[in-house]
Amino acid sequence: MDDFLRRLPKAELHLHIEGTLEPELMFALARRNGVSLPYASVEAVRAAYDFTDLQSFLDLYYQGMSVLRTAEDFHDLAMDYFRRAHAEGVVHVEMHFDPQAHLARGVELATVMEGLGQARRQAERELGLSTALIMAFLRDRSPEEAMQLLEKASPYWETLDAVGLDSAERDHPPAKFQAVFERARRLGIPRVAHAGEEGPPEYIREALDLLDVCRIDHGVRCLEDPALVERLRDQGVVLTVCPLSNVRLKVVERIEAHPLPRLLDAGLRLTLNSDDPAYFGGGMLANFRACQRAFDWSKSTFIQLAGIAIEAAFMDETRRLSLHRRLAECS
Ligand code: HPA
Ligand code: ZN
Question: Whose CA is nearest to atom 10 of ligand 1?
Answer without folding.
Answer: 167
